[in-house]
Amino acid sequence: MALLLRMSGYAAHVAYSGATALQAAVEHRPAAVILDLSLPEMDGYELGRRLRQHPQLAAVRLIALTGHGRQEDLDRSRAEGFAAHLVKPVEPQRLLDLLQPIARAAATPAA
Fold first, then answer.
1. What is the CATH number assigned to the segment(s) 14-102?
2. Which end of the chain is more exposed for a tag (fewer CB within 10 A), N or C?
3. What are 35-72's pLDDT values in tens digits?
4. Is 79 exposed, middle or buried (0-12, 13-18, 19+ CB in 10 A)?
């Protein structure tokens, strides 16, 4: 997935735990974070909450990535403030279509 994003012109940073993902997000301040909801040590929901609590990341768009696609999973990610819920395997174009308006908005200077 990181390779797809990089080949499409996005800066992609990969983290393998919630703690390192939080640290990377603080350092790089992304417009969007794709979170695996089944991260070790800290699940994607908790990581999403922690990202939102950080003043510099409060507006980051969260995209859930998971193997769970039941309606209750979709409802929970929506309730937790995720902008989208993607079920593995992810169709590459679907991900790129989600990221395009986020990247466009991030590139537009604030008025």
1. 3.40.50.2300
2. C
3. 999 887 899 999 999 999 999 999 999 999 999 999 99
4. exposed
Reported pTM: 0.91
Q: Give the residue extent of every domain in the chain.
A: 14-102
Angle between helices 18-28 and 44-53 (to 10 degrees): 30
Using the predicted structure, report yes or no on whether residue 110 has a pLDDT greater than 70: no
Say whether pLDDT at 111 is over 60.
Answer: no
Cα separation of 73 and 88, whole Å? 13
* Residue 78: CB atoms within 10 Å: 13
